[in-house]
Amino acid sequence: MRHALIFAAGLGERMRPLTDRRPKPLLEAGGKPLIAWHLEKLAAAGVHYVVINTSHLAEQFPEALGDGSRWGLRIRYAYEGPTPLETGGGMLNALPLLGDAPFLAVNGDIHSDVDYAALPPQPQGLAHLVMVDNPAHHPQGDFMLDAEGRLHAEGEPRLTFSGIGVYRPELLRDWRAVIGEAACAEAAPARFKLAPLLRAAMAAGRAHGKHHRGTWTDVGTPARLAELDERLR
């Protein structure tokens, strides 16, 4: 697995006022930007090429990260325009830069001790998702992971999707049939969430996952950022 995508286009509304002048993935914890932790781990896992999708304060990413050479990476930027395209639209927009092989994708505003090198370079189906225990702010979880490692949209007990996964580009092949004729899907570029495509893959038995029991933080509020910063320092 040589290519990766980092979702970094969100507006960071829950993090205001911190994100009024800086994109959330560039906020610092433990002395470095959140996104830098991912870049270090991706390089250590043998990834050589990273696409970063951008929207809010997009110009700050190349200013802060450059071409990726300091990490031994090649970074390309996929600008989504002034309005973020959501996870599905953002992934679709970045596909021309990612190529035809499976790729790792990670949310730029999380932190974890997930070992990227241990993720399957060739997922069994269309997607392999890293699942975590439900945090206090998301007690209902997202999906059910069965004993064989298959993911299901329904069922108990439920786990939370970590924002880390390995995907085949084919996941988006029939996106219009899955998303339907929603107004945002008809825009150019299209804006839609990834979750409906994942649920469709689950219904077809083509989505798998693994339960990660280590550390994981969704840096969704200033308080969580402060807690993470203290822990990392």
Q: Can you describe what's shown?
A:
The chain is 24% helix and 25% strand. The two termini are 31 Å apart. The relative contact order is 0.19. It has 233 residues and is an alpha/beta fold. It has helices spanning 34-44, 60-65, 86-98, 175-179, 195-203, 222-232; strands at residues 3-7, 28-29, 32-33, 49-54, 74-79, 103-107, 110-112, 127-132, 143-145, 151-152, 158-167, 207-211, 216-218. It is built from six helices and 13 strands. The strands form three sheets. Strands 1, 4, 5, 6, 8, 9, 10, 11 and 12 form a nine-stranded mixed sheet that branches. Strands 2-3 form a two-stranded antiparallel ribbon. A two-stranded antiparallel ribbon has the order 7-13.
What descriptive keywords fit this protein?
24% helix; alpha/beta; two-stranded antiparallel sheet; 233 residues; 9-stranded mixed beta sheet; 6 helices
Care to give the gist of this entry?
24% of the residues lie in helices and 25% in strands. The protein is built from six helices and 13 strands.
Topology (SSEs and partners):
Elements: E1 3-7, E2 28-29, E3 32-33, H1 34-44, E4 49-54, H2 60-65, E5 74-79, H3 86-98, E6 103-107, E7 110-112, E8 127-132, E9 143-145, E10 151-152, E11 158-167, H4 175-179, H5 195-203, E12 207-211, E13 216-218, H6 222-232
Parallel strand pairs: 1-4, 1-6, 4-5, 8-12
Antiparallel strand pairs: 2-3, 6-11, 7-13, 8-11, 9-10, 9-11
